[in-house]
Amino acid sequence: MTQDSPLDVLVIGAGSGGCIASIRAGQLGLKVACVEANPYADPKGEPRPGGTCLNVGCIPSKALLSSSEEFEKIQKHALAHGIRVAGATMDVPAMIARKDGIVTKMAQGIEYLFRKNKVAYLKGRATIVGRTDGVFTVAVTRSGSTEEVTARNLVIATGSLPRQLPGIEVDNVDVCDNAGALDLRSVPGRMAIIGAGVIGLELGSVWRRLGAQVTVVEALPELLPMCDADVAREMLKLLTAQGMDFRFGARVTGVERASDGSLGLAYVDAQGTAHSVACDKLVVAVGRVPTSSGFGLETLGVKTTQRGFVDVDAHCRTSVDGVYAIGDVVRGPMLAHKAEDEGVMVMERIAGQAGHVNYDAIPSIIYTSPEVAWVGRTEQELKDAGVQFRAGKFPFTANGRALGNGDTSGFVKVLADQKTDAVLGVHIISTYASEMIGEATMAIEFKASAEDIGRISHAHPTLYEAIREASLAIGTGALNM
């Protein structure tokens, strides 16, 4: 890259946050470059944009979830619709190839958007050298050669890595992290998963649908503590009925390899009793840790927290003027759309605009079957904060579209302020919860009341009518129950 003057901004990391930040910078007329070192699964070993989300997270997992769901529909649900299918089998390599094709297409799309918006894409490893006269110098190394890039502002978008468990070595053959579990070439007879969080449940869902016996070992005493308690209880019931075996309050003590090549996951339960789960594949899904070291951030004296997150304010400014950080490497939920919103905010502020992120209106989704989606606060959080509220709930057993689809599991729960009726939280379990949560997010963003939602016309028959019904249940009462 040839420079005649410093960049306005250099983005380190081309994941969800870094890509969108760079594109927005280009749209705003800023002179911008984005650096990425990780090749992920690129067949040529080239650094690949898209980060964890595109390459080994959100997108490939949803592709496999979609494929496995189609297979399960044929196997278990087609007959209820009068469709008779005999001898259906899953070609796992073809499923994986489809997933890889989607990822490659989207990665190419990012590079196209970089070119379209005049973002210089630098393939290499960034190392911060220092700062002189208000200008940062960053060395970008690739294939043994190094070039120095200068910029007036830096945006740290280095993302996160899978958390490792001491004594359990991930080889992505038999013991896998999320990347390895997305790339298996056959269905294991038995799969054990350490961690009952979002990653563990989604990966477990993929391979359970294809025939694996899935056991989930979780250190916490309950499922999904970050969700509303009603949602967590219902999901435990539904996932257990589907065949997932959960072991809560389990402290993993190690992994043993048997003579036949199988694995034994050893753990101790809450009562101190030792157990072992036999499996053919083990998935370690115990969360993620921020990537805040290894690229010279300490050279600038940027403050980090005890947990390794880059310390930032509400506008993602670090302790060093001109240095920003976004996405998984900073506080808050590790969500791609949160990182993207932060990237837009930062670039707009660098350009002199008033960028802003409403952290109270960021939706979360778990792509199991049924899906779980929520935005705003849970009932437990409102009680702990002493907020007086009213709750409305509507089951999909009373929804005509859900009946027609053949899946009436789940419900919508709306929480509203007792005095003002402002919507404070919405929680959904449904086949298409991910597509319905947008209405709830907009309602919270624009400070709608439950009555507002109840008085808005909702098309019939649709699943999202249940949001209206749950909102009506807070006031005069649901119309269809």
TrEMBL record:
Coiled-coil regions listed: none
Top enzyme category: oxidoreductase
InterPro entries attached to this UniProt entry: Class-I_Pyr_Nuc-Dis_Oxidored, FAD/NAD-bd_sf, FAD/NAD-binding_dom, FAD/NAD-linked_Rdtase_dimer_sf, Lipoamide_DH, Pyr_nuc-diS_OxRdtase, Pyr_nucl-diS_OxRdtase_dimer, Pyr_OxRdtase_I_AS
A single BP term in Gene Ontology: 2-oxoglutarate metabolic process
All residue ranges annotated as the Pyridine nucleotide-disulphide oxidoreductase dimerisation domain in the record: 362-470
Note: The active site is a redox-active disulfide bond.
Identification of the protein by name: Dihydrolipoyl dehydrogenase
Organism, as annotated: Caenimonas sedimenti
Lineage of producing organism: Bacteria, Pseudomonadati, Pseudomonadota, Betaproteobacteria, Burkholderiales
